[in-house]
Design goal:
single chain, 6-stranded mixed beta sheet, 25% helix, alpha/beta, globular
Length: 212
């Protein structure tokens, strides 16, 4: 499995291209901007794009969904139902940050922890982690967790936006992420990678050596 990280869009949210060498199937997690950059990576791999998986509905993570969908019309766009309200109000989100509005992303299916997804022989475990938004999801593939804006390197996602909740993000991180194997690599929605073990010890909010 090959993982490519592309910081794209107006706030440089990380889009991840994940490729299965055997089946030639790929998924992307987020579509944060510049569909042509995403296509360039997929073309270089000779990949067939199967899914566009969204961790949540904030504008910086869905910025290029429709553009990618135009390039790969068979790719399915998935998000949690609880974040439908965010995707419906993309223009308001953009206006709040002083950014030109984008077209509402077209969603093919709403998913949750009971949804079974795979590409090639790789199973995708869906973990509902509300707190940054009501419908925030993490995706676990083998030893790699794609955490969106729930968990960052030694930090957590902000909870002051619509649907955010500090108490919910604490439960999500402590009960659903910190209970995973410590060796799991965490690929966040912004910034550098970390690991579950590192965050258990060093996370500023919920780690053993927390500062807050």
């Amino acid at each position: 499995m090959i993982i490519k990280k592309l910081p794209l869009g107006p706030i440089e949210a990380n889009t991840y291209v994940i490729f299965d060498e055997k089946s030639k199937e790929a998924i992307i997690i987020e579509a944060s901007g510049d569909a042509n950059s995403i296509k360039k990576e997929l073309d270089a791999l000779g990949a067939n794009l199967k899914y566009i998986l969204l961790t949540h509905g904030h504008f910086d993570h869905v910025f290029a969904v429709n553009d990618v969908k135009k390039l790969y019309p068979k790719a399915q766009v998935y998000i949690h139902k609880e974040d439908e309200v965010l995707t419906q109000n993309i223009a308001l989100q953009c206006a709040h940050f002083g950014i030109d509005g984008v077209e509402r992303p077209k969603i093919d299916k709403y998913i949750d922890e009971n949804t079974e997804l795979c590409f090639g022989d790789n199973k995708i475990k869906i973990i509902h982690t509300p707190g940054h938004s009501k419908g925030s999801l993490c995706y676990l593939i083998k030893n790699d967790l794609f955490s969106g804006d729930t968990l960052f390197f030694e930090e957590i996602g902000r909870c002051d936006l619509f649907g955010g909740s500090f108490s919910e993000i604490e439960k999500s991180i402590r009960n659903k992420i910190f209970t995973l194997d410590k060796s799991i690599i965490v690929h966040p929605g912004h910034g550098q990678d970390t690991s579950v073990g590192h965050e258990i010890k060093h996370n500023a909010y919920f780690g053993e050596n927390s500062r807050y």
